[in-house]
Amino acid sequence: MGRRSPRAHRPSRSQGASAARHRAPAPSAGSRAALGSAEVLVRIRGLVFSRNDRRIFDGVDLDIRRGQVTAIMGPSGTGKTTLLKLISGQLHPDAGTVEVDGKDVHALRRGELYRLRTRMGMLFQTGALLTDLSVFDNVAYPLREHTRLPESMIRKLVLMKLEAVGLRGARDLMPAELSGGMARRVALARAVALDPMMIMYDEPFTGQDPISMGVLITLIRQLNDASRLTSIVVSHDVKETASIADYLYIIANGRVMARGTPAEVEAAQSPWVDQFMHGLPDGPVHFHYPAVRLDQDFLG
Amino acid sequence: MSRLRLIEIAVGAFMVAGFVALFFLAMKVSNLGVASVTDGYQLIARFDNVGSLKVRAPVTMAGVRVGRVEDIRFDKDTYEAVVSLRIDPRYDTIPADTFANIFTAGLLGEQYIGLAPGGSDELLADGDTLDYTQSALVLEQMIGQFLFSKAEEGAK
Amino acid sequence: MLDLLAQLGRSGLAALERLGRGHLLLLGMIRGLPSLAVRPRLLTAQIYNIGVLSVLIITVSGLFVGMVLGLQGYYVLSQFGAAESLGVMVAASLVRELGPVVTALLVAGRAGSALTAEIGLMKATEQLSGLEMMAVDPVKRILTPRFLGGLIAMPVLAAMFSAVGVLGGYFVGVGLLGVDDGAFWSQMQAKIDLHEDVVNGVIKSLVFGLVVTWIALFQGYDAVPTSEGVSRATTRAVVHSALAVLALDFVLTALMFGD
Prior knowledge:
The complex is a heterotrimer.
Chain A: H1 14-17, H2 29-33, E1 40-51, E2 54-65, E3 69-73, H3 80-88, E4 95-100, E5 103-104, H4 110-118, E6 120-123, H5 135-146, H6 151-164, H7 180-191, E7 198-202, H8 210-226, E8 230-235, H9 238-244, E9 247-252, E10 255-260, H10 262-266, H11 271-278, H12 294-299
Parallel strand pairs in A: 3-8, 3-9, 6-7, 7-8
Antiparallel strand pairs in A: 1-2, 1-4, 4-5, 9-10
Chain B: H1 2-29, E1 41-47, E2 58-61, E3 64-75, E4 80-87, E5 99-104, E6 111-116, E7 129-130, E8 132-134, H2 139-155
Chain C: H1 2-31, H2 33-36, H3 40-50, H4 55-79, H5 86-124, H6 127-133, H7 138-176, H8 181-191, H9 194-221, H10 227-257
Helix pairs in contact in C: 1-7, 3-7, 4-5, 4-7, 5-7, 5-8, 5-9, 5-10, 7-9, 9-10
């Protein structure tokens, strides 16, 4: 008499239940094994960008691989948000190329760029919901704009997306009535409304309480795996980001200072990376702002 | 959805009110409501001096407006001003020996043509010329005449 | 000395840059007009925000301006024995000048500053960026409806201002000061020409509507995305609009009402 295999493959529906857990589930076996051999979705080569005479990027090479969560970390002000805008074509580099899915973003004409953007989702730091629309209308916005689906279909899609982020019951609230964490989840639902091929997260963990942080971490990882997305997370929250990332880049002073899986970067010998990853107050990035010697200041 | 409907109704009312205001301005404030210049028959009057008479100035008879000045031209052969008057067709009993004078309305007022009817049985028709005209009074000429007559008086 | 020149040069270039950006935005908004035709709801919402919500301030101001014109006009004209011309004076002043200009200034203050603040805030909270990322052109979706709304609302408001003003002048002149009722209207009707005065006034207010709305939207769109930046942009919008309206008024008056 045969027995069912004890390791029946869990249906994806149960992944919704795991939202209650705070620890992110381990990335699916497929993505980890495919590191390094996965296809590159976003390819950046020799990126140079300045703003107001300040060199923000000085020759940056990056690869974002399909199906993975890639984290881009670094101290505040290194231009991480700028990088996302360069990838989406909102800003133009001074030199270098940014290729998304094989297309040079900055060589595209307006119509093609817009079509490309419908396949990219972005989660802004503040959520950037349209303040005069309800939660439901905000999530429905891209669907109503870019598809000709009937309203009944749109309603089902919106409710599905809201369910995935756990806010289906909040559908009639206005953005002003939402907490910061909830607003970000709604923005996330909106970002995935058109089932994009990749999502960019701009500082998703900043200023979040531990519970919302946990929820977001879980959602980012789950969405990535369940929908076979590619995620780019820009953050300086080391612990949280490293816990879900498949690959890391640390950018500072306009260049890539470290790259690799979280384990590889952790084990790196660079004192700078060490200071950053462990949050040490003093090291290559000095504690003291440059000044004359202390005794000169007091006695001079 | 009801808030949207309210907005749309309000905008509709707004546009209607605006058009009413515009209509009011056009009809009650401007000269649109008054009879247009193109009806009526034409009379010609020749003056030595039209002063500051302008096109569209009123033509009155016994103080009632019966028409408008349609055109003012200069005759280079007779050195006269040729004024075309457009008279309302209702007023078709203007005698042939009517006088056409240029008067001034009020102190600052603009000049207009006043018709003083004569006694002839013959009536003016479209295209006829008024034979008797009185030119506008020019201030400098009047002062000159006044001074001249005063000088004459003094000399006597 | 050289520093000062360099500074001047930089400011000049920066000013030219802003001017250029402003005109590019105008072109962008005009390009968005065809796509507005399929979304009339956006336009009506904006005509409501800019026009309907300004009706109260416009009509009250118009009434008072008309009444003051009646009062002052009477004092001056009666010195020349020309009090019968009060109607012409009030109507001409309103229809040709005060209607379009004062309406434009009031709308710039009330609706223009609101537009600037709204757009500036949308920029500061990354809503405009968000729309861009959703492959929606914020200029076509957000700015164009507001632009056309302001353009349409302005002449409507100016007509209301002039109409209410004439009635205000009538109330004061005929009702309170004893000017002859018939003379008030008949002189006005004789002297105010539809094409010369009323239509020119409408054209003026259309031009002002374009300029005021454009400046308000540009200042918001170009604002520095902080709360201080938005507040500065709002002030700038009102000041620039006012100056532009008055300067254009001179130019238009010279063009239209000259001989």
